[in-house]
Target: non-specific serine/threonine protein kinase
Amino acid sequence: MFTKLLIDQMDRKVQQQQQQQQRQLQQAAKSQFPMWTPSSTKEPPAGAMASGRTYPLTKSSTATTTSGAKCMKKKKFVRPKEETKLIGESDDLPDANTGRMNRYYSAKNPTTTGQELILHNPIKTHDVAENMSKLARRNALKELAALQSQQAQSTDKNEDALRELQESIPEISKIFDVHCRIGSGTFSSVLLGTLQRERCLSETSRRRFAIKHHNPTNHPERILRELECMFRIGGVDNCIGINCVVRCNDNVAFVMPYMSHDRFHDIYRSMGVQEVRNYMRNLLIALRHVHKFSVIHRDVKPSNILYNRRTGKFLLCDFGLAQKIGPDGSIVQSELSNAAALALMRDMEAARHLMLQDGNSAQDEVQEYLSCQQEQRVRALGGGVAQALAQAPLGSKKDVAVQRADTQRLINRLRFVNPTADPNNYVSPTNDNKKEVHASRAGTPGYRPPEVLLRCPTQTTAVDIWAAGVIMLTTLSSMHPFFKAPNDCAALSEIINVFGDIQVRKTAFMMDRLVLLTQKMTALDLRRLCMRFRLADHFISMDVLRRHCKADGTVEACKSCEQATFNCLCRHTSHKIEKYEGLDIFPAHAYDLLSRLLEVNPQKRISADEALKHPFFSDQHRLVSGISLQQQHQQRLLQQEQQKGPAFRVRETLPAAAARTLKPYVCGAPDAPA
Ligand SMILES: Nc1ncnc2c1ncn2[C@@H]1O[C@H](COP(=O)(O)OP(=O)(O)OP(=O)(O)O)[C@@H](O)[C@H]1O
Model:
């Protein structure tokens, strides 16, 4: 069905292209060889109607003026050096009266030069159009073939995953109808299943489950830890729970409630203030819950967050890298003891009667699923592109090129890594006498915090908070992924490029680490950085550029951030910067929270519980349209003054948290809005 739609669409496209090309070619031909019509003021050129005469062409062979096809077969035509003259008639241009196609040839006057018929712009529209349509058709077929092979590949993977699950855990196919693969990661494949005993129910009434089939290479300890987290922590406060576990020899499958969700990749650009607020609130609720158990999730990233923007449902999943923190704040490395494992199994057995009872309300889910499928189909048929084009601001090609180059310069600055840096040896302990302790690196590149990149052995739940900050940074800047370094050294460089070298050096020093840096980096202003990416077209619009350029047309650039001085992104800038008042949809509080989540020093980083009390989440700080941000900010400051400032509760009493010395955050003193 989808393929047919695609072919139909391609055929239509090809037809449209053909018609357009035909029109363009006719117009071009007309403009060069205006048609003579009885009403035309121009007389038909002398000899234009002289048909049937034969002239030798350059490079041999003969052509008659009436035989356009023959003429077009010539490979090379020589442009006339002398004035050209219309001498022929052909069937390529439509006659105004008859509608027949005519063609006028331009050639050296055969009477003067004698021998040559030289075609000037030999346009034979139907041949060219035919060629173009062939080309378009060929391209369309290529596209289709690529799509089909992609589909075939994914079908292969789908079938492989289904077969593997059925072969390795045959019990699964006795309990579930397994439909398709819905996701896969480094450690598992996730498949969609429904209960066989619910076959009698209508499709919409059947409950759906996500069956996570662990790769047999996955360490049993890891699987057991994940199971423990899902069983003991999951099921409440936006954390995914577990319905049952099926094991057969080395193979383990977790059965969880299925939740249809939006791909972060598809939505992060269009998330407004309220949606970002809800998303972050839900994420922090999940993290607060996980952290209460002295557990670090360690893999907080958008693909491990199931979020449905239509229903607002939110689930944090994948506890595969979760780690427990011991009473002294160190990470518990030891394997789950036999007693603990047995206790877990006993508890799970005791809760057996509860399993498979909940699950999701299938009715809602199926509706969502269907509408989701529909949206995806529209997207596949170019709906997304059309929408993107419709949203794209208009500008000349040159403007767009300048803007792109400027943005690319900024991205290059963010991604900058000193070429002399040794990726395996970029940080060293300040005290060589101390015995080196193992530091966990578990996590996804781009979401690892400075303490992990600095190889600090004492890591806390603050690791997850940093990752949440990176997600918020992505939504506020509309840039995904924001950090995308290939290794830890480059990842630390990216952090230094945004937060400055001093912050990172201080934190490293506090952790008895020395970062080897050869270059200073100034910290950037998070708000202006996010705005610069999100509102790139505005920041470097030609209007603004013209206003600030010098007499010779050049624009001065800031030496630190390498941006035009009026767009300087440095946190402490001495340049006169362009104000972008009222442009930003996000309130100053959003950036204040962002800076606290992305605090380089883990000891000063905000906790999930504290973050949830941040003013960004209180409704009184909603944006009021029609009033400038600065005015709103001043009004809020006034209100806070009157209320004598909000009372902050003490941080949650986690063992690891006890060691932290947090500076209390005061919401009333964020940077003034740009
Ligand atoms: N309950 C669920 N409902 C719907 N989809 C799910 C569910 N659980 C997982 N998925 C999908 O499967 C994907 C992979 O799941 P998960 O992250 O648990 O596997 P993983 O092997 O640990 O992946 P990774 O290596 O990327 O961390 C998710 O990104 C999600 O799209």
